[in-house]
Known about the structure:
By secondary structure, the protein is of the alpha+beta class. The protein has helices at residues 3-14, 18-37, 83-89, and strands spanning 42-44, 48-55, 58-61, 68-71, 74-81.
Amino acid sequence: MNKNELIASISNETGLTKSDSTKALDALVSSITNALKSGDEVRLVGFGTFSVSKRSATTGRNPRTGATIKIPARKQAKFKAGKALQDSVN
Length: 90
């Protein structure tokens, strides 16, 4: 399912127009992004948890040349599915 299909699904289930559904979805994504940027966790009970984890710097190898390269430390967004979502999928 892509973004347009998700917007159409939200519109069908809520009775909102596609324009309003787009605004709602964009607001949700923006709110989650802003919370993760500030270091917060977003928990949606029954759905899952969005969080940020820190990855330490490591060294890697270029597979073509075999040269060693440095991989810098960074933050990575993660999602862990909640129990209700996991149960509905299985």
